[in-house]
Each structure stands twice: as structure tokens, then as C-alpha cells.
Amino acid sequence: MNTSIEDRLRSYAATLDQAVEATQAGASNLDQNAIEALPAPQPLRPQRDRRLLPIAAAAAALLLALGAVVAVSRHDSGGRVTTNTSVATQPTTNVRPTPSTPTPTTATPTTIRPSAADGLAPFFNGAASLDRRLQVTATQLNGKFDANGDAVFDQSDVDAVGGTDPSALAKTIPGGMPPQLESAALLVWSDLMSRYAAMCVGVGPYQPQTDSDLDGCFKNGAAAAARFPADLASARALAAASPPITPVAPDSHAAGEVAVQVNAIVESEVGCGGHGGFIFSTLQPVVWQPGISDSQPTAGTIGPTPFTAHYDPTTGWSARLLVC
Amino acid sequence: MVYPDMNDPSGAGTEPMQLERHERDFTSFVTDDGAKLRRALVAAYGVDVGTDVTNDALAWAWEHWDRVEQMERPVGYLYRVGQSAARRHHRWRRPMEWPPEVFDPTEPTDSPRLDQALNALTPRQRVAALLVHGHGWSYAEVAEATSVSVGSVRNDLHRAMNRLRRQLETS
């Protein structure tokens, strides 16, 4: 070969970085990026430009590293490696002073203490389960696309997508969490909702070139799929390091705030003709106001947006943002 | 009502602030030093095991952050933690996985593959070759990250390159 060993090592180091990224992004990333790889329609909004996906993947890798503070189930990527351009960061050059440090003799973390992870376990487990269902459904839908990016969906596809609705999972997010932890849990849920909302499947042909209403919807889930493992791991780590969640009354505003925040995410994902692509970032302040009527006993604002909320002893809180 | 839970009746008001500081510091650590640790451990143990043991080491760092943030060479320490974790994978006989080298299409396809040659090296030799020539680290950086002396890095790299040349330059 004409290439020197040093050059080959340099090139192979970049390949290793790519492989690590792929491993961290997990199978869900690969599944939904398969849709992304097809000749897709132009994105609705500039910020959903496909060129941002490598950056999102790099961010997901970083977040996963942070999320690694708890044991995380491995996503088997099967060692798949692409030869596309990578986001290979250069090593930092800051070198610390080098006095000796004692070598560890054991490295087995065994501390088990009560934490917020206990109260969030149903949500985390449900989220992991729903992630797997979304992966399976994404794979099923990927298989329907031909080389031109066209597809014909049937009722089984519609049913499969219907089985990934994360609405019920939102009910397992407890109220009364510290804002940082609530944000982390809502980010996880928003990832799932974004992926679900992006699967804009109806019985019949999907024609992205002509059906402007569906423009860009499928690939809107790719970014959320890529970051989900990291977001879940990060939320789990934060919960594990947080004190136990203080229970709140089911009919309290603290419990109702979760429903309001969830509904704000739903509106961002599917409201006003949206099809996913929204990534939750920060909690918006919720301000409750006195009730308006029996059917709308409470109302308020979340950020600048008004909402109404209702508590039912059987189903809990439901909220509706007054948008679109 | 805005975030009523911020007034935690348990009185643990300082704990979230401390947690926030820990998380901020830990995030910064992961951004800089965590990336170095990952590269070193992936170079030693391959993509799958290397990534897993990096996560193990970072999890250990999070749990013992009070100690880790006081260390002068935390990456070297955590590299040893990762090595300990890797022994578990070794006991499970979990194979090291190396992605295939991507060849220049103009090169002959029967050329010896770098990934196979790297797999035949010892972990220390592989780490030295990949970090110095692959990622452009200095000897001192490799020594610090892997908790060995600069002289050891120099020797490991010399032996690694000799073996790689024997295997790859025969054609």
C-alpha cells in the first residue's frame, strides 16, 4: 500500500470514533436514520436540516457519557460502521501536573440508598419498553419504503404506530419533583413523543413529493431516536443521585403541573399540524389561576400560553393548552 | 403556583444545589477528560468492551465524585478502574470488536488489514500506537491517561510500530 502506517492509524482512529458514536446512539438511531437516509422531502423548518444530525449525534454521545453513571442496558448496534464523515473531536491538550496517585485496588460501587429513582422506576421502565416498540415499528415502516422514497402502508402499520402512543406513559411521571429532575423525565418523554408523532402513517400510499401535509414528518423522529438512550441514562443517573420524591396529593397542582407540561410538549409535537421534531429543553413556568366553571375548574398559563386543566379521581389530571 | 416543590419540606435545601454543582463539574469532566478516557479504553479493549468499561469507570467517578475531583490525575485513575472492569469482560470471554479498516478504493483489496494487525498487539502497544499516531497525543498525555511512565509509552510504541510494519509492509 502507498499509505504509511501512521496515516492508516490516523484514519482508523477516526473509524473507531465513528463506531463508538454508533454504539452509543444505539439501534434506535440506526433504525430511524434508515428512514432519514432515503430521498426525503425538504424539511419544514431550517433547524431540522439533515446536516445537523451529526451534531445531534455528537451531543448524544456526550450526554450518554454523562448518563453512564448508572448501569444502562446496552443497545447492540451490531458493530455497524458507516464510512460517512465523522465528528471526530481532537483530544484536548491540557495536561495536568503529574504527581503520583494511588492505584485503586477495587472499583465496585455498591452503595444502594433510597432515591428518586424508586419513584421514577415505572416511568423509566415503561420508557425503555416503549423505546423498543418504537424501534420495531420504525424497522417495519423502513421496510415499506422503496428506493424512490415511496411507500404504501396498510392497517398493520397504522396499528403498530398506534401501539407506540406514549400518552399513557406520561401518567407514570410523578408530581412534586425538583425542576431539574422533572425536566429530565419530560425530556425522555418528549423524545418518545417526537418519534411517535413523526410516524405519520395512514392506510395507502405515502407520497412525500406531492403530499405537502406529510412533508418531512418521518425524519423528524431521527434526532429524538438518536438522543433517547443518552437522555434516558442521564435522567436515570440524576434520579439515582436525587433524594426520594416527596409524594404529593393526586389532585394537587403539583401533580397537575406534570399534565400541563406534558400537554405543552404534545402541542409542540403534533399541534398546529406538526409531526414531531420538537426536543424539550426547559420547563416553562406554570401559573395557576382560580377556576372558571365546573367543567373547567382550574386554568392558568404555561409560559405565555393559557391552559385549562381538570382533575378526575379515576383518570387523574388532564390539561389542554389553548393554542391553534 | 410556580414549582411548589422547590420549597422542599424535608429541609434538604442545600442538597439540590450541591447536586447541581456536582453535575456541572462532572459534565465538564466528561466533556474533556471523559473523551480522553474513552479513547484510551477503546484503544485498549475495542469498541464494545471499551465503551462499556468507560461507562463503568464514569459511573464509578460519579459515585465517588468527591474523591475524583480532588485527584491530580483522574483520567489515569479511572483508566485503572476501567481495566478492572475489563477483566470481568475478559472472564466472560467477550471478544474485542474492531471495526474493519476502510480502504482507499484505489488500493489493492488483498492488503493486510490494520484492524487485524492491531488486534494482534498487546493492549498497551495498541493504546500507544492508536493514541500517539491515531489521535495525535503526546507521550506525556498517553502516560498520564494510562497511568504509566513516559518511558513505557515510548517502548510500547516502538514495539507496536515494529510489529505493525512487519505485518503490514510485507506486501
Question: Quick recap of the structure?
Answer:
The complex is a heterodimer of chains A (324) and B (171). Chain A is α+β, with helices and mostly antiparallel strands and 324 residues long.
Write the layout of secondary structure elements.
The complex is a heterodimer of chains A (324) and B (171).
Chain A: H1 5-37, H2 53-67, H3 116-142, E1 151-153, H4 155-162, H5 167-170, H6 179-198, E2 204-206, H7 222-240, H8 253-270, E3 286-289, E4 298-302, E5 305-312, E6 316-321
Antiparallel strand pairs in A: 1-2, 3-4, 4-5, 5-6
Helix pairs in contact in A: 1-2, 1-3, 1-7, 2-7, 3-6, 3-7, 6-7, 6-8
Chain B: H1 14-45, H2 47-63, H3 65-68, H4 74-91, H5 114-119, H6 123-134, H7 139-146, H8 150-168
Explain what the structure shows.
The complex is a heterodimer of chains A (324) and B (171). Chain A has 324 residues and is an alpha+beta fold. Chain A contains 8 helices and 6 strands; from the N terminus they run αααβαααβααββββ. Chain A has helices at 5-37, 53-67, 116-142, 155-162, 167-170, 179-198, 222-240, 253-270, and strands at residues 151-153, 204-206, 286-289, 298-302, 305-312, 316-321. In chain A, helix 1 (5-37) crosses helix 2 (53-67), helix 3 packs parallel to helix 6 (179-198) and helix 3 packs antiparallel against helix 7. The radius of gyration of chain A is 22 Å and the shape is globular. The model of chain A is unreliable at 26-111 and 209-214 (pLDDT under 50). Chain B is mostly helical and 171 residues long. In chain B, 68% of the residues lie in helices and 0% in strands. In chain B, helix 4 (74-91) packs across helix 7 (139-146) and helix 7 packs across helix 8 (150-168). The radius of gyration of chain B is 20 Å and the shape is elongated. In chain B, 45% of the residues are buried. Chains A and B meet through helix 1, helix 2, helix 8 and strand 3 of A and helix 1, helix 2, helix 4, helix 5 and helix 6 of B.
